[in-house]
Design a protein that fits this description.
There is one protein chain. By secondary structure, the protein is of the alpha+beta class. It has two helices and nine strands. It is elongated, with a radius of gyration of 22 Å. The model has no long low-confidence stretch (mean pLDDT 90). The structure holds zinc ion (ZN). The site of zinc ion has 4 residues, from strand 2.
Length: 176
């Protein structure tokens, strides 16, 4: 029996509707938005200027690559923006502490965090700090930290994270 004619008002949503196989094509998205920011304090041990406690308004963007899905998207922009915002929120208005610094002794008590280097001693309220499993709070390692946070929630792993620490100073970590 012949197939019934398609009604012109209906959209064919069968998976084979593409005249070519779009799963073979790679697309790249850039996710950058004024809301993808965090303001945090940090210091870099043994750095002349950045060795002093100071802060930055960091902005985050993501490049993600892959084939398009049945929804004709690599990923839903709203979904990835929400994930980035969640990571930024955890870092925002916090003192960023590099847990694996070889130059810091770190003592964490119930309410405070004590950081001792060969030259300085800091004691901060614990609630004001975000302890990161990195060796130093550089933009490079922040980008890798955020990449890992996003990778734990995304099936796509073909992506990069870019961190702009000051205008024009950008670090990128990832696979594209
Ligand atoms: Zn800095």
């Amino acid at each position: 029996m012949d197939d019934p004619p398609l009604n012109n008002n209906l959209v064919d949503i069968s998976p084979s509707r593409h005249s070519h196989d779009d799963s073979k094509h790679r697309y790249e998205l850039k996710i950058a938005h004024h809301s993808l920011i965090f303001s945090s304090a940090h210091f870099l041990i043994n750095h002349a200027k950045c060795g002093r406690l100071h802060g930055h308004n960091y902005s985050v963007s993501v490049l993600i690559e892959g084939p398009i899905t049945e929804q004709d998207m690599v990923i839903d922009f709203m979904k990835i923006k929400k994930l980035i915002r969640e990571v930024c929120a955890k870092l925002d208005h916090k003192i960023l502490v590099p847990h694996h610094s070889p130059f810091l002794e770190i003592l964490i008590t119930e309410k405070s965090i004590k950081l001792k280097s060969h030259r300085k001693l800091y004691i901060f309220p614990k609630e004001d700090c975000m302890i990161l499993e990195i060796e130093a709070v550089t933009s490079e390692l922040l980008a890798s930290y955020i990449w890992k946070q996003l990778a734990s929630k995304l099936t796509q792993k073909q992506f990069s994270v870019l961190i702009e620490e000051t205008p024009g100073a950008v670090a990128k970590f990832g696979v594209i």
